[in-house]
Amino acid sequence: MTTDAGRDDAPVVTRDEDDEALSWGPTSADTSYLETPVDDVPVAHTDEDDEDDEDELPDGVMSSTMLVVHGVFGAIFLLFTVAWLRSVGNVQPSFDSSLAAAMWRIGTYLAVAGPAIWFVGTILLLPTSRSRTRVVSFIVGVVILLPWPFVIGALS
Fold first, then answer.
1. What stretch of H or E contains 2?
2. What torsion do the CA atoms of 79, 75, 106, 123 make, to the nearest 10 degrees?
3. What's the domain count of the chain?
4. Does the global pTM surpass 0.90?
5. For residue 71, is it within any domain?
6. What distance in Å separates the CA atoms of residue 115 and residue 130, rounded to the nearest whole number?
7. Is the dihedral of CA 91, 95, 100, 105 positive or negative?
8. Would you say residue 54 lies in a domain?
9. What residues contact 153, with CB distance under 8 A and at least 6 apart?
10. Taking a C-beta distance cutoff of 8 angstroms, is the pair 122, 141 a contact?
């Protein structure tokens, strides 16, 4: 490698060194490269191989459409949780008995946690191979867990 006369710190690579860097020939000092003949072994081709080439996903893997559907329903259930939290936080009930107050408190906790429990339960209890059943379960959860106090308050 030679240096430029104008600058002592700028190395100039000559054309021969470029060619040497780009070549991979038998004169190379690299011992990891071995040139060996390739054996031509014929591979038997059967009809069973064609059946496996379809666009089937392995077990436990969802398609990208189902991942988007999960994300959309996850966002819906998250919004439901926030709506239940806002709806329940606005109500200040007054009960005569401590049992009624305890039941109200448990109900509010379950109302707030219900959408998250439904979403996680659907994912854990239904296998990925039953994607239609998962979508139906998500839709049923959206209908059942709709935060009516929030909806009615927003409409009035």
1. strand 2-3
2. 170
3. 1
4. no
5. yes
6. 21
7. positive
8. no
9. 87, 90
10. yes
Identify which of 57, 64, 61, 69 has the alpha carbon closest to the alpha carbon of residue 119. 69
Q: Burial letters for 10-39: b for 16+ Cβ neighbours within 10 Å, e otherwise?
A: eeeeeeeeeeeeeeeeeeeeeeeeeeeeee
Give the tens place of pLDDT for each residue, 7-53.
Answer: 667 666 666 666 666 766 655 566 665 666 666 555 565 555 555 54
Residue 43, helix vs strand vs coil: coil
- Long-range Cβ contacts of 132-141 (<8 Å, 24+ apart): 134/66, 134/70, 135/69, 138/69, 138/73, 141/73, 141/77, 141/115
Confidence of residue 124 (pLDDT cuts 50, 70, 90): very high
The answer to whether the beta carbons of residues 136 and 71 sit under 8 Å apart is: no
Residue 128 belongs to domain spanning: 64-155
117 inside domain: yes
User: Which token pair is 124?
Assistant: 């854990």
Q: What are the tokens at 140?
A: 């049923």
Spatial distance between the Cα atoms of 77 and 145, rounded to a whole number of angstroms: 9
Gap between the Cα atoms of 83 and 15, Å rounded: 71
Can you give the pLDDT at residue 39?
A: 64
